[in-house]
Each structure stands twice: as structure tokens, then as C-alpha cells.
Amino acid sequence: MSVDSALLEILRCPDEHHAVLTYDADAQTLTCTECKRVFPIRDGIPVLLLDEAIEPDTSAKEESA
């Protein structure tokens, strides 16, 4: 199931920075370009709840620093 392109243009991260989201059609997810949270899309509906988002893996960043 795909998400309407017009909807994708207006959707933003629900966190305070309201950054643009990138769409992954294969994984059916939206990823914030700033905080890197991954939001699921269920039955064609983006679930933009911070509690439902997958947090980015920060351990890889910390190890490389």
C-alpha cells in the first residue's frame, strides 16, 4: 500500500523541530531527516506518534566518536 505523494509533502516530524520525513516504500516507514526517528505506516496511514517511533541507534555514533 502506498502513501499519497501530496500527503508526504506536508507531513513533518511531530517533535519540536518539525523536520522533513523521508519515505521508505519497501519498509513502509517514514524517517525524520533531523532526529532519525523511524515512524511506521500501518494500513497506509502514517503513525506519527513519538511513543510509536523507533529511536535511532545512537550506540554506533558513540563508538565511532
Q: What's the SSE blueprint?
A:
Layout: H1 5-10, E1 21-24, E2 29-32, E3 38-42, E4 45-46, H2 59-64
Antiparallel strand pairs: 1-2, 2-3, 3-4
Could you describe the 3D structure shown?
This protein has 65 residues and is of the alpha+beta class. The protein has one domain: N-terminal domain of TfIIb (Single Sheet), CATH 2.20.25. It is built from two helices and four strands. The chain has a four-stranded antiparallel sheet, with no helix packed on it. The radius of gyration is 12 Å and the shape is globular.
Give me some keywords for this one.
alpha+beta; 4-stranded antiparallel sheet
Could you give a quick summary of the protein structure above?
By secondary structure, the protein is an alpha+beta fold.
Distance between the termini: 39 Å
Number of strands: 4
Instruction: Give the CATH architecture.
Output: Single Sheet
Number of domains: 1
| Structure classification | alpha+beta
Strand content: 15-25%
- Fraction of residues in helices? 10-25%
Order of helices and strands: HEEEEH
